[in-house]
Amino acid sequence: MAALSEQRCRNHAQREAVARCPECRRFFCRECVVEHEDRMICTSCLRTLTARETPRRRHLRIVWRLAQCAVSFIILWVAFLMLGRALLNIPTATHESTLWSMPMEPDLGEEDE
Predict the structure, then answer these.
(1) Is the residue at 44 inside a domain?
(2) Cα dist from 48 to 5, 17, 29, 42, whole Å
(3) What's the structural domain count of the chain?
(4) I need a surface site. Which of 7, 31, 37, 47 has the fewest CB within 10 A?
């Protein structure tokens, strides 16, 4: 079998091959291969691989998003519940005072003698 440096790209006969697709076992130049899951695969094999995986991944993505929404809703509900309980535990005297009706004396900074 010839060395990789002696091979030519399947799509571009004038270019030297830089990789061999592990799926179809053909040689390709830099423009014809892409990295997918830590492997260099030709674009046609990548299309077939992603076409097979798309429905399953889409289903998993929908389930994952619904799970994220449910967990987020539960976390927010617990946070608001805890905040409400904390507000209920504040003593009544704290929020029934008439602080705003007391006249405020200006702070002059210097005392008159």
Answers:
(1) yes
(2) 27, 22, 19, 10
(3) 1
(4) 37
Whether residue 82 is contained in a domain is answered as yes
In Å, how far from its chain's centre is CA 8?
Answer: 40
Q: Is residue 38 part of a domain?
A: yes
Number of separate helices (H) and strands (E) present in the chain? 2, 4
Domain hosting 12: range is 4-88
Q: What is the pLDDT of residue 92?
A: 73
pTM above 0.85, yes or no: no
What distance in Å separates the CA atoms of residue 27 and residue 3, rounded to the nearest whole number? Answer: 11
| 44 class by beta-carbon count within 10 Å (0-12 exposed, 13-18 middle, 19+ buried) | middle
